[in-house]
Amino acid sequence: MKVETFPLILGALVALIGLGLLADAWLPEQARFRSERRRRTRAERSLGGETAIGLGVLCIAAALMGRDSWPYSTVCVIAGTVLLLWGAWLNRTYFRERITNRGELRRGNPPEPPKSK
Q: CB neighbours of 109 closer than 8 A, spacing ≥ 6?
């Protein structure tokens, strides 16, 4: 395998990730659970933000596949970075909840202490 094909393979993998993000944003959502078990409501993700992140990842993939010989690789990297940052800004409440909100470790009643005789 030549070294020149490595950016093409990496770009194809990154493009698949971008297409997965776009598909997740565009396809209708189906509930994975029957009832809400959380005490607080979940933060909703911005579908426009997720689409912007997917497009940004696709721009980065195009720059990887274009290598140094493509004249628009710099434009793709700049556009991809702007789209990634914009999508992250639109989804900031969702990301904040996913990163910082762990919830209670144990749900339900606390265990009773053992009775001494």
A: none
